[in-house]
Each structure stands twice: as C-alpha cells, then as structure tokens.
Amino acid sequence: MSYRDWGRGRGRGGGGGSNCSDGGSASTFSDGAGHGGRGGGRGRHPSHLKGREIGLWYARKQGHKSKETDRQQRAVVRMDERREEQIVQLLNTVQTKTEKDQEAMSWWSGDEEGPEQPVKVKPEAEKAPVRQRPVLKKTFLDRDVEYLFEKNEQDTDLDEQLKEDLRKKKSDPRYIEMQRFREKLPSYRMRQELVNLINNNRVTVISGETGCGKTTQVTQFILDDYIERGKGSTCRIVCTQPRRISAISVAERVAAERAEVCGNGKSTGYQIRLQSRLPRKQGSILYCTTGIVLQWLQSDKHLSSISHVVLDEIHERNLQSDVLMSIIKDLLNIRLDLKVILMSATLNAEKFSEYFDHCPMIHIPGLTFPVVEYLLEDVIEKLRYTPENTDRRPRWKKGFMQGHVSRPEKEEKEEIYRERWPEYLQRLRGRLYSASTIDALEMMDDDKVDLDLIAALIRYIVLEEEDGAILVFLPGWDNISTLHDLLMSQVMFKSGKPRILHGDSSSSDSVFKKTPPGVRKIVIATNIAETSITIDDVVFVIDGGKIKETHFDTQNNISTMAAEWVSKANAKQRKGRAGR
C-alpha cells in the first residue's frame, strides 16, 4: 500500500475506532454460549436470546465496559519482554527478604571451571550485622568471589608493609618515568584538593574534560592517601566502567603507572564477565563493568568489603547504571562508612549532585592541544568528491529522517530542514565554495554515512598529511566492516591492516600497539573510543556524525537500534581524541 493509500485508509477507518471500548455492537460482543448470532441493532442483545439470558448478556456487557473503562484510566508503560525481565531481575537482587525460611540463590559469572551451582544464603533474620561474611558454597570461596568476601578489617602490619612498598616504589625507574607523565595531567595538579573533598564528604561529583586524567588518577590518589596515612589495608576501591574494554585498558594503564603488572595480587586489577585479573584483597583498586557490581549485590547487598565506589562515565545513561545509582543511594543510609565518587566527562554534574542531596562538585579542566576542524563542505572541496548520483537527490533528499521517529516528528524535522537548506547553501556560496561542492552536498544522502567519502579522505591523509594515527568513528558493525573491506580492497592499505575497535575486547589489543615505521595506524571504532580509552598516537579523527541508540517501538512492541545524529557533547568528545 502506498503512503497516499495508507493515509486514506486511516481517514476512512477513524470513525469506527471506538466500537470495542464502549461495548460495541452485538456482533463484537460474545454471549459466551458459542452463538455467532446477529445483533438486534447497535448495542442490542442478539435476537436469539430470551428471558433470563437477555439479562445475563447485559450484565456481562456492563462488566466488560467497566473493566475497559478502568483499563483506559490506568497509566501505561510500554516495554519489550527483554527489558521487563532485566528490571525484574535487578529489583529482585536488592529485595528485602523478611520470611525466616526464605532462601536466596546466588550465582557467580566468573571463570570457575565446571557448571555453576546455586548457593544457599542464610535468611536475613539469621544474619549477623553488616560486616559478617556471607555464607557461600565452598566451590565459590576462591579466585573471584574470595576477593569480594574478604573481610576489610584494618591490619597494622599490612599498613606498614604497604607504606614501605610505596616508599621503595618511588625510587623505581619505571615509576619515576610514569610519574613525570602523571605530573603533567590537570588532575594531578588538583590532587590534594580532590583528596580532601572525597575524605570530607560521603558523595562527591567530579566532572572533567577529555584528557584530564580523572579515570586513571582519582583512584590512585585515594589509595596512596590511605597508604601514606597508615590506613592502606582498609582501602578497597571499586571503579565501574560502562564497557569491558574500558575496564581492561584502564586497569592495565593504572598498573603500568604504578610500575606493576595488572592483577596477580598487586594493587590494581580488573573483573569483567568470564575474565579477571584480580588485585590483592586489601589496599587495592578494581576496575569492573557495572554488571559485575550488580552481580555482587545478589550475594552481598551491602557491599560490606568495599570502602569506595567510583561510578565512572555516569553521563552514559543506561538501565544498569541508573539502577546501580539508585541502589547506591539507598545503600548510603545503611553503609555510613561508604564513600561514593561520581565521575562525568560532561558538564552536567549538577543533575547528579541534586540526585545525591546536593553533594559537592568539582571540575577538572582538560589537557588538550589545539585541534583544527574541517567540516563536511571543507572535505568535499579539498577532495573534489562527487557522491553517487541518485537522480540528483532532493524530493526531499529521498527518505531523509528515516529511523525510529514518529511520523509527525519526522515531518516537522523535515520541514525545518527544508526551510533552512537554501539559507545554508547561500552561506556556502558567500564563503566561495565551488559550485561542484554545493552540487555534491545536494546529492548526498544525509541519512547515511558516506563510506566512499571516508575511504577517499583516509587515502588523502595517508598520501598528503603528516604522520599520525587515524581514528574513524562509525555508528555500528555494518559500517565498520564495509569500510574495512573498502580499504582492504586497495593495495596501499594491506601492509597496515586497519584495526577495529568494537564491543569485542578480544580483538581490541592491537589498537593500542605502535605500528612499525612507515606504516600508518588506522582505527575504525564505534563510540566506545569516545571516553576512557586513549590511543596515544591519534592525530586525525574522522567523525561520521552518527551513533547507534536504542529506542522502543511502541507500535511493534520491540526495542530497536537506530543510527542517530550525535549530540554536541559526543562531537566534542570525539574531537578531543585528536588533541591528546
């Protein structure tokens, strides 16, 4: 059916849309006796009913109408089954167990060999105070889980040992070399101010621009402060990351700055699903994904052994992070000794401060170098690029604004775009862009990322520009794989095979490695390269301008992933990757 036909059909059928809600005609209301019967007119009982059956029919009809009226007055929340199951599961993890004989099931997602088994936990009524070690089956009391449930009590001998180790470390050449780099970071210059604010408040919000070092430095400031004050054994920091690759790369970086290996009983480690390198049990920093902390809460709802919870990248809102934040807020009423640090890469810290009862905020300026920006029209002008001719595009841009948006919203945005387009072209003419550039802009499909243009731009940079890695941002795997194939089809890119940075951490290690002399590193990534992850040698950033976001399709009752235009905050983050 064409758009025009669909519109007419909707118009003609509009008047009959209320039949079901008001009880309908006899043909739409069943008498429950299996008769197909014809009605005796609109709202009348079927003609075959007699006597008492007529009264029962009207009674059922009235009951149906009352239920329908009640249903229409209720608030409705629409979500798909997967999201509903997630919410139910997360709420169940923190549900208070009041019945004496109720048993909880605890599951762990670590590296343990063999099948996982349910573990019985003592009912709430039989538990001792918060600091009691949770009861777990013996097979789980090693490796990952042992780290979580180790008692966090002060050990004066260990305090002295940690203090002595830190003193010796300061004379280690590897530590000294890393210290020179750390001292250049804006966060390091604010070290004492940050430590004092965290020590004097239960909740602290830290915002910091790209490159300020908040993710790698704040946790070290806290740990070193505790060690220097002779309280190192009581410090156990957990820092959440939105992605697996972030947890791994940040932990390895922090370990390197401390002249240590990652995990293996040293001060810094990480834990993600099915993979871990755990630090020592006391006086340590653990980087992990948000889901890992939610798993811990199933077995220890008070996070009894943790002294500091650092929630990093909180501006990247999702279901898990929002649920964890609400749990942590409630947990503060029980764990009076718990310290919470919220860190955001954008200047929206006020919202999070308000949520945590107007807790104090602090901003760390960024350390970036000047970045020259080239817009789409600049690139087309420089490359003299001509897009694929699709019958000279407009009308209007043939499918512009596709995606999850509703029809009224789509039409409204298309109208605004159509009105502003001539003004935009006139500005370009006034800035002396060539007619071929303006024609190319008119022919481009604004709803898609032009991968041919990006491939041409990469080729230009490799041949004409100075040395330095190229980082390309694309919305999803389909675009990444297509661009990768486009580049690999050209002989000049085969020696330095483009690296892919996607959600799969197993294939991401190569993006951080240096390339041999004469080989240009090209990294094709999704938005996971915007924050936390630092690729040191990036000089050029190509921003595709799109990002994949999850939306809920109310008409089809499903979740969808659609490519949307990036926000200004996202664009700024991406730009900052070239100024590190």
UniProtKB/TrEMBL annotation:
GO terms for molecular function: ATP binding; DNA helicase activity; G-quadruplex DNA binding; G-quadruplex RNA binding; hydrolase activity; RNA helicase activity. GO terms for cellular component: cytoplasm; nucleus. Coiled coil: none annotated. Residues 65-74 have a biased composition (Basic and acidic residues). It holds the Pfam family Helicase_C. The lineage of its organism: Eukaryota, Metazoa, Chordata, Craniata, Vertebrata. Residues 19-30 have a biased composition (Polar residues). SMART domains: DEXDc, HELICc. This is DHX36 helicase. Residues 456-580 form the Helicase C-terminal domain.
